Amino acid sequence: MKYAFSFLAVIALILIAGLGSQIPGMQYFFGVAIPYLAIMLFVGGFVYRVMQWAKSPVPFSIPTTCGQGASLDFIKQDKLDCPTKTSEVVARMFLEIFLFRSLFRNTKSEIHNGPKVTYESSKWLWLFGLLFHYSFLLIVIRHMRLFIDPIPFWLSAIESVDSMLQIGAPTLYLSSVTLLGGIALLFGRRLVNRHVRYISLNNDYFPLVLIFAIALTGILMRYFLRNNIDIITIKTLAMGLVTFSPVISAKIGAIFYIHLFLVSILLAYFPFSKLMHMGGVFMSPTRNMANDSRAKRHINPWNDPEIKPHSYAGYEDEFREFMVDAGIPVEKELSAVQDEA
Amino acid sequence: MAVPKLEQLSKSVVQGPSLATGAIPTKDWMDIPAIFKPGNYAYQAKKEKVEYLNSQKDLQFPNAREWSPEDDDWKLPEDWKDIILKGLKERLDKFRSLKIFMDCCVRCGACADKCHFFLGTGDPKNMPVLRAELLRSIYRNDFTLGGKLLGKMAGAREMTVGVLKEWFMYSYQCTECRRCSVFCPYGIDTAEVTMMLRELLHLVGVGINWILEPASNSNRTGNHMGLQPHTFKDNVDFLADDVENLTGIKINHSFNRKGAEVLFITPSADVFAEPGLYTAMGYLLLFEHIGLDYTFSTYASEGGNFGLFTNNELMKKLNGKMYAEAKRLGVKYIIGGECGHMWRVIHQYMDTMNGPADFLEVPKSSITGTTFHNAASTKMVHISEFTADLIKNGKLKLDKSRNAHVKATFHDSCNPARAMGLMDEPRYILDHVVDNWVEMPENTIREQTFCCGSGTGLNTDEIMELRMRSGLPRANAVKHVIDKHDVNTLSCVCAIDRATLTSLMNYWNPGCKVCGVSELVGNALVMDGENRQELDEGLRTLV
C-alpha cells in the first residue's frame, strides 16, 4: 500500500497550508518565505545535481546503437538511431526529449502455450507520458502571465488555443483536463500493470499524487472557488515575488496558499528525486554520444597508460622452445638465449 | 544439475508461477533472499586462477580462497562492506553513466519485459529495472539525501551480506546485451550496472570460474582456450589441411610474420571447436581467394576479451595485446573476425584504452582500394565490412548454388547490433552467398535482437537450465521461421553465439544448424585451380 502513504502525505501538506495560512501573520510565511525557500532549493539543487553529474567524466564512448552505423558507401546509415555527426546526435536527442521516441518503440511481450513468445506494440505509456508532460508544460507556461506585465502576445495566443473549445465560463483550459487525465492514467498504470506495480516505490507515487493535488487546487480556484480569490492581488504577489518586493494582501483565500505550498513542495522535492530525469535525459551517454569511436579517438581522463599487456617478450620466454619447434618465428633464437645464460 | 526435459520446461515457462506469467509475488523483493543451489549459479572461481590474476602487474583480484556460493559463510574480508562502499564511491566518480543511471530511473517499467532472462525465468529481479534497483537501493542509502533521511521509505536499504549474495546471483543472470537500453526513455543501460556490480564483487573475491579461467588463459597463452603457440598453429594448420582435402586449394597462411600487411585476429574458439571451425575455414578460403598478405599471431590469438566481463583493468590489459602485436609485426592494419563482445571492446573501448594506434595506417583494402574511414582511428576492420566491400567491388567469385543445402536466417549478435551498428553488412553478404535466407520477426532482430542467453561468460554447463530459459526468446523466434519457412541454418557473426546457439538449438529446435556468415562465404567461393569434391554440406561435408 505504498500509494496510500503518498495520499496521506499530500493530505497532511494540504492541512498544513490550509490551516497554517489562516493563522494571523502566517500569510507572509506561506506566501513569501516558503516560495522563496523552495525556489532556492530548486535552482540550487538542480544546478548542484547537474554539476555533480558533470564532475564525473564519460570514460568511454558508449552510445546504444539502434540502427545501422556509418560504414561503407553502399550501406545506408541510420542517421537518427546511429548518429555520427553532432547534428545527427542533436536530432536523436530532440526526438528523444520532445517526442519520447524510445517509449514509442515499446512492446508488450507475452508467453503463450507452446511455448510461444509474442510481442505487440504497446504505446500506452508513451501516450500517457506525452499527455502528462505536455499538459504540465503548457500549464507552467500559462502561469507566466502572473509574472509578466504586460502579458505578451504569444502567451495570450497559447491561452486561447488551450481554451479553444469555449466550454463554460471562465473557459475551460484543455490542459487542465489532460493533466488530470494523464496523471490518473499514469497512476492507474502503476496499479494495474503487474510489473510496474511490483517495482513502484513511494518515490513513484508521491510526485503523481502531489501534482494531481496541485492541479486540482488550481482548477478549484479557477472554476469553483472564485469568491475566495482575487486574481489581481495574486498577480500583485507574484510580480512582487519576482521583483523581490512581495506584498501580501488579506484578500487571498486558503485555497491559494494550499496550491502555492504544494507547488513549493514540488520545487523543493524536485532536485532530490527521480524528477531529475528532466536534467538527466540530456546527459545520458548512451543517447547523447556519436557512434564514431572507431573513427575518432575518445579520451578517458583517468586512463592509466601504465597498464600494459603481458609482454610479448615474457610470452616468448615461456614458450620459445615450442615456438622454434613449430617453426614459428621468434625474436631471440634458442642459441642466443643459451649464450646469455 | 540435470536439465529439465523439453516438455517440462515448455510448460514451466508458460505456467510456472512467476511475474512473467502473471503471478505477482506476495513479498516485497527486498524481503526475498537469494538462495544458491546446484544449477542456479555458475561455479565460483578456482583459488589458483584468482591468485594468478592477482599476481599480475596492474591487476587486483584479492581474497583468493576456497569457497562456495552455497555456503552461508563466503569468507569475505573483514572490512568487505567498507571495500564495497568505497568501490562504489570510486566508480560513481569515474563513470557519469553510473551516476545518471542511478539517479534518473522513474521505474516506468518499459524495460521490464525486454530482458530475455526475465522472459525465460519470470524472476522479478531479472527485470532490468529491478536488477538496477539492487544497486540503486544501496546507492540511495549511502549516497543520497533522501535515502539517508527516509531510509526504506525512499527505497533505500543497508548493504548486507544478503545484498551481496543477491548481487552475485543477478549480475550473473545478465548478459550485458543492452536490449533494455534501447527501450529506456533515458537510455539507462543495464550492462553498465552489471559491469559495476561485477567489478565491485571482484573487490571482495567473488567471481566465477568460467570467466576468470579463460581470462587467465588469455593473459598467459594469448587465447582463452589456453592454446600454447604450437597448438594454436597446429589447429589452424589442421583446418588448412581440411580445406585442401575438400577443395584442392593449398592455403598459404602464416604466424607471427613480420611485415605482413594485415594482422588477423579472431576468437580462438574459431580454431578450436565446431561449428566455429567451419567459419575459420571460411576465413582461410576468403583470404586465399584474394591473395591477402596477412598473418595470424599466436601471442594475440584471442579476439574475445574476458576482461570485459570482470573489470576495466583486466579488459585493458588483455586488449593491449592487439596493438602491441600489430606494432611488433609492423603490419598496416588489423582485421578482426566474427565475434560479439570482442567488437564491443574494439569499437567502443580499444582506441580509448590502448590507442592511439599511430603506428598503423588508416585501413585501406589493397584488393579494392577502399579506405575504411569508419575505422580511421582504431585501424581495425570487421571481417563483414571487409567482405561486403570485396563483394561490392566484384572481387569474389561466388556461386550461391553451393549453399543450396542452406535455408538460413540471421541472428544479430547483441554487441555488433547495439554497441556498433553493424547490421546490414552481414545481410549484404548473405544476399550474395545464399539463395535462401529469411528474417526472423522484427521485434527479435537488429537493435531489438535477443541475446543467445549465454553471453558475458555464462556459457557454462552447470547453469544449462538457466541458459535454455534465457535463450527462449531467441530460440522461439528461430522456431517461428523454421515452422514458416523451413529454415535449417541459423547464421550469425559471433563466436560465443556459435557455441551457445548450438546448445540452444539442440534443446529447443533440434536439427537447426548454427554457422558463421564467413562459413557460408567459404562454401560459396569459386577458387581458381580448385579441385572440389561433391560438397553437399559445404565445408562441413565429410570426405
Describe this structure as you would to a colleague.
Chain A is mainly α and 341 residues long. Chain A has helices at 2-20, 27-55, 86-99, 101-104, 124-142, 153-162, 174-192, 194-199, 202-224, 231-242, 254-269, 277-283, 312-326, 334-340, and strands spanning 107-112, 116-121. Chain A folds into two domains: 2-77 and 127-283, Transmembrane di-heme cytochromes, Chain C (Fumarate Reductase Cytochrome B subunit, Up-down Bundle), CATH 1.20.950; 308-341, no CATH class. Chain A is built from 14 helices and two strands, in the order ααααββαααααααααα. In chain A, strand 1 (107-112) and strand 2 form a beta hairpin. The mean pLDDT of chain A is 94. With 543 residues, chain B is mainly α. Chain B folds into two domains: 15-207, no CATH class; 215-540, no CATH class. Chain B contains 22 helices and eight strands. Chain B has a four-stranded parallel sheet. The two termini of chain B are 37 Å apart. The chains are: A mainly alpha (341), B mainly alpha (543). The interface between A and B is large, with 103 and 124 residues.
In short:
The complex is a heterodimer of chains A (341) and B (543). Helices cover 59% and strands 4% of the residues of chain A. By secondary structure, chain A is mostly helical.
Which short descriptors sum up this protein?
heterodimer; A: 341 residues; mainly alpha; Fumarate Reductase Cytochrome B subunit; 2 domains; two-stranded antiparallel ribbon; 4% strand; elongated; B: 543 residues; four-stranded parallel β-sheet
Question: Could you give the topology of this structure?
Answer:
The complex is a heterodimer of chains A (341) and B (543).
Chain A lengths: L1 H19 L6 H29 L30 H14 L1 H4 L2 E6 L3 E6 L2 H19 L10 H10 L11 H19 L1 H6 L2 H23 L6 H12 L11 H16 L7 H7 L28 H15 L7 H7 L1
Antiparallel strand pairs in A: 1-2
Helix pairs in contact in A: 1-9, 1-11, 2-11, 5-7, 7-9, 9-11
Chain B lengths: L5 H10 L31 H9 L24 H15 L1 H9 L11 H6 L6 H16 L1 H6 L10 H11 L7 H5 L6 H14 L5 H13 L7 H19 L14 E4 L10 H15 L3 E2 L16 H18 L3 E4 L4 H14 L25 E3 H10 L15 E4 L2 H5 L5 H10 L3 E2 L25 H7 L1 H14 L3 E4 L2 H14 L4 E4 H8 L19
